[in-house]
Amino acid sequence: MTRTQLVMANWKQQGSEQTLKQWLSEVNVPELTAISRVLCVPLPYLATLRQQRAALQSPVLAGAQLVSAWTGGAYTGEVSAAMLSEFGVTYTLVGHSERRQWLLETADSRRAQLAALWQQGITPVLCVGETAAQHQQGQTFAVLWQQLAEVLDPQPAPGPLVLAYEPVFAIGSGQPLSAPDAQQVHQQLRQLLQHWYSAADCQQIRILYGGSVNSNNAAEYLRYPDIDGVLVGSGSLKADSFNALCRAIASAVTAKTVSLI
Ligand code: PGA
After folding, report:
1. Is residue 213 within 6 Å of ligand 1 at its C-beta?
2. Atom 2, ligand 1: which residue's CA is nearest?
3. What is the C-alpha to C-alpha distance for residues 204 and 115, in angstroms, rounded to an integer?
4. CB 116 within 8 A of CB 67
5. Alpha carbon of residue 196 to chain centroid
6. What are 109-158's pLDDT values in tens digits?
7. pLDDT: which is higher, 169 or 257
8. b or e along 80-97 (b: 16 or more beta carbons within 10 Å of the residue's beta carbon)?
9. What separation in Å is there between the alpha carbon of 59 and the centre of ligand 1?
10. Closest ligand 1 atom, CA of 213?
């Protein structure tokens, strides 16, 4: 079993068209082609992302941070999965805690977003994670179970899935969950997934860790068997630190592969 390691950059509501062009050319370094890299830009930059990826023959894949729960129609301000697909988007975040908290996205909406993405052949990256209070009260497992069940029950539509485990208190706080603690949760998540997927399929589903990942700590996560990549916010905004992060991950991945042989 091999799961290709994935590094996802999430720019959130940050960046500009100019910084995007510069960033893409600066991350276009040949030694990083062994890992998959995805950039989730704000929606207005998708056209520039498509154009620059083509011009640079960039291996960085196009990602989006949101998708409409509806497939089309009179829904002012919404952007459908088909529209994302037109711009070459191959991965899209679903249920990021900032959208759950500030945009009040519901479980029904998340479930519909997954279905809409699968219909267009886009891989959803389903974000799950407990709050600090839930963590302190030992509710992590119960919360994750509920967050998975409310979108996957009774049976998910067929389609590839990536999970991103992001403890809410670790996002943007500079206080990441330690790699051994993250591994423990990832292992539990992989077991939970067996409720909906076959054991073999669960081995194919990539589970990313997110929350205050940077170039200094990224490699540590990738040493663990159930951590298949990272979702990075602020650590992805500057091309040089993102390159350093990806280089650290690439060497950790090589070490992990060698130890598996
Ligand atoms: P952070 O954000 O890396 O800035 O903590 C991660 C995320 O929200 O996906």
Report:
1. yes
2. 233
3. 20
4. yes
5. 20
6. 999 999 999 999 999 999 999 999 999 999 999 999 999 999 999 988 88
7. 169
8. bbebbbebebbbbbbbbb
9. 22
10. 3
Torsion sign, CA atoms 132, 228, 226, 124? positive
Q: Is the CB of 232 under 6 A from ligand 1?
A: yes
Please indicate whether residue 172, judged by its CB atom, sits closer than 6 Å to ligand 1.
yes
Burial of residue 28 (CB within 10 Å: 0-12, 13-18, 19+) is middle
| 135 flagged as catalytic | no
Q: Report the nearest-CA residue for atom 3 of ligand 1.
A: 233
pLDDT in tens, 37-67: 999 999 999 999 999 999 999 999 999 999 9
Q: Is the CB of 236 under 6 A from ligand 1?
A: no
* C-alpha separations of 169 from 7, 57, 141 in Å: 21, 37, 16
Q: Residue for token digits 């992060």?
A: 245
195 catalytically annotated: no
Structure tokens at 56: 């640079």
β-partners of residue 36 are: 6
